[in-house]
Write a structure and sequence with these properties.
Elements lengths: L2 H5 L19 H7 L1 H4 L9 H15 L4 H15 L1 E2 L7 E2 L3 E2 L2 E2 L8 H13 L3 H14 L8 H15 L6 H18 L4 H20 L3 H14 L4 H16 L5 H16 L3 H19 L5 H17 L4 H15 L2 H4 L10 H10 L5 H10 L7 H14 L8 E4 L5 E5 L7 H35 L4 H10 L8 H12 L3 H8 L3 H11 L5 E3 L7 E3 L2 H5 L10 H12 L6 H6 L11 H15 L4 H18 L1
Antiparallel strand pairs: 1-2, 3-4, 5-6, 7-8
Helix pairs in contact: 4-5, 6-7, 7-8, 8-9, 9-10, 9-11, 10-11, 10-12, 11-13, 12-13, 13-14, 14-15, 15-16, 18-21, 19-21, 19-29, 20-21, 21-27, 21-29, 22-23, 23-24, 23-29, 24-29, 27-29
């Protein structure tokens, strides 16, 4: 098939995409150029960037006199520069991603590049170069409906040949071995000689990784054995266990934990449940040994908890587990003593001034409206999402590692994975944490106290006053007016302990009432009693498929941050389970919840705030005149 066979016309066939070579290159041209000499110093991926730079420099030197040879060098540098990612649908990607572009990728290659790569792969003397050129060509072939059998078989054999070398570039050889497995399964499945050589090499490389403590070599090969050749699983499991015990003979070792864990997975693949359980118990013992070594209590507790969990999952001795749980509690009691506090001062005088200027009404009802609506709003969910994403880009290291949140007893209550903007659950966790840690403190510790200071200087509200306002609001859940009034009045009197006691339980009926006004069913089948129904919890209501038609995205995020999400204040769940002590009731979350409940109650009257603001501006204009 030639270039003209593929190009066709724009109306009926796919056009050739632009590549590096703009014209066909013959075998004679390639032989005459002697491109192999340009790669004489390249032997494997370790030195490939030096070769890429040299090829580009050499291409620039000859591009005026020999443009075709210069284009061949650019093609070679592009193929060599690509990053190989085994086990993915796109095994070759751009090695560098920059704000103004990226390095070369298979999408940049055209049909003339494909032909040249295939011819050069056939003549490449070095196994790694041959594997790279044929494999990259294989990625381009389907675009032009080229069969990939010859390229795939060539690439598989070349990858295997490179992986059989005896140099110290073991990770690169392991990657080539895995790629040979992928390609061999597709293109050389019936080649028994290739298969035998493949698994002999895998066994040898796995043992080399174990002997030299290279988990990045041994563990991926063990995973391939579990997936592709379970007949080797028992032998591999024995090797992993033996190496784990060798490491433990010198003292507790994190690598031993990984080795025993992989051994257990291999015994599972070998269908030997008794040896699998033994390996799990060894991994638990290794974790417990690490937890008992001197170090940070937080890390010790994490390892001890994981070791206990492994024993519980795999029939560990119950008496021992109880003893370990007591030891874990003692370790956790030391965590808070190791933590430090970081703070910095900010000038909030402008915020206080702004709040005081906004709370000016002569009556209690209008003043409460101004407290609820005049100086702040709920967070904007889309804006928070943008800020979280931007922060992850600006402060890269904060999103690269797992983060754990501990309570006052040193118990981990929430854990975040490394940031992934495509993971909606993780995005919500980060958004909730952002609102709780950045937005609520300024609101609860500066703005609301400033507003209440104004109210206390002008009014002496009574419970009857607040009950009357609540009765006049059509959104107040009927039968809950008194409890809500007690909570709101307690906040006006700065009694945040009482405000918490009354308002935390009232958020749920408020949300449920909103669902019922929207005509949405809030009952579900009881899990405890057949044929019975029960009301959905606040957690379930905020996760309801139709919650978006009842509450705004901003309010949903606010309520989750205040009441139900572990990454936030989690007031509803912590209070309901008795996990908030008396001295924790007066918190940032309680103050923010008080303000949110006041806004919800007064929501039908919020337009009145606009009228008051317009009247104030009109009076000011008249005074200035």
């Amino acid at each position: 098939m030639t270039g003209s066979d593929v190009q066709g016309d724009a109306s009926g066939e796919e056009l050739i995409r632009q590549g590096i070579l703009d014209a066909p290159v013959s075998r004679e041209d390639l032989e005459a150029f002697g491109w192999q000499q340009e790669l004489a110093s390249l032997s494997g991926p370790v030195s490939r960037w030096t070769s890429v730079a040299e090829l580009r420099k050499r291409g620039d030197e000859i591009k005026e006199e020999r443009p075709q040879d210069a284009a061949i060098l650019r093609l070679l540098s592009a193929a060599i520069s690509m990053h190989m990612v085994v086990g993915t649908p796109q095994p070759y990607v751009a090695a560098l991603q920059m704000s103004n572009g990226r390095s070369a990728a298979p999408d940049d290659l055209g049909i003339h590049d494909l032909d040249a790569l295939e011819m050069m792969a056939e003549r490449a003397p070095d196994a790694w170069v041959r594997a790279r050129l044929s494999d990259v060509a294989l990625q381009v072939a389907p675009v032009y409906e080229r069969p990939g059998w010859q390229l795939g078989a060539m690439a598989a054999r070349a990858h295997l040949e490179y992986s059989m070398r005896s140099d110290d570039h073991a990770v690169s050889r392991r990657e080539s071995l895995q790629r040979a497995m992928e390609l061999g399964w597709r293109y050389l499945r019936r080649d028994t000689e290739f298969s035998e050589a493949l698994w002999v090499t895998a066994k040898s490389l796995m043992h080399q990784g174990l002997e030299k403590s290279w988990p990045g070599v041994s563990i991926p090969i063990a995973e391939e054995i579990r997936k592709r050749n379970r007949s080797m699983a028992a032998e591999a499991a024995e090797a992993f266990e033996q190496q784990g015990e060798t490491l433990l003979a010198s003292g507790p070792s994190p690598d031993a934990v990984d080795l025993f864990r992989e051994a257990a997975a291999l015994w599972l693949a070998a269908k030997d449940p008794s040896r699998e359980q033994i390996a799990h118990h060894k991994s638990a013992d290794a974790l417990i040994g690490l937890a008992r070594t001197p170090g940070q209590a937080m890390l010790q507790a994490d390892r001890m908890a994981e070791g206990i969990a492994v024993l519980r999952r795999h029939k560990g001795d119950r008496t021992r587990i109880k003893e370990l749980q007591a030891e874990l509690a003692d370790i956790r009691s030391r965590i808070l003593g190791e933590m430090s506090t970081f703070s910095h001062q900010i000038d909030v005088s402008s915020v206080v001034k702004h709040v005081r200027e906004r709370v000016t009404a002569p009556s209690l009802a209008d003043a409460l409206l101004q407290v609820a609506f005049a100086f702040s709003n709920w967070v904007n969910a889309e804006q928070v999402r943008t800020e979280v994403t931007d922060n992850a880009r600006r402060f890269i290291f904060t999103g690269m590692f797992r983060q754990v949140t501990y309570d006052a007893n040193g118990v981990p209550v929430d854990s975040t994975a490394p940031f992934d903007a495509s993971d909606e659950a993780e995005m919500e966790r980060r958004m909730v944490n952002h609102v709780s840690q950045h937005d609520h403190p300024i609101l609860a510790q500066v703005a609301i106290p400033a507003a209440l200071d104004v109210l206390q200087g002008k009014f002496e509200p009574t419970l009857a006053d607040i009950v009357g306002i609540l009765h006049s609001s059509p959104v107040t859940p009927r039968g809950h007016e008194w409890s809500l009034a007690r909570g709101i009045l307690a906040g006006l009197e700065l009694d945040w302990e009482e405000a918490a006691v009354f308002l935390i339980p009232q958020a749920e009926p408020f949300v449920r009432a909103a669902f019922k006004r929207a005509g949405i069913h809030t009952l579900s089948n009881s899990n405890a009693t057949d044929g019975a129904e029960e009301e959905k919890s606040l957690n379930e209501l905020l996760a309801h498929p139709d919650v978006g038609s009842v509450l705004s995205p901003d309010l949903i995020l606010e309520l989750k941050a205040l009441l139900t999400h572990k990454a936030g204040h989690n007031l509803r769940n912590r209070y309901g389970h008795g996990l908030i002590s008396d001295d924790q009731l007066a918190s940032v979350g309680t103050v923010a919840l008080w303000w949110t409940m006041l806004r919800l109650v007064l929501w039908p009257f919020r337009e009145r705030v606009v009228e008051m603001w317009e009247q104030a501006k009109s009076l000011k204009s008249e005074g200035d005149a």
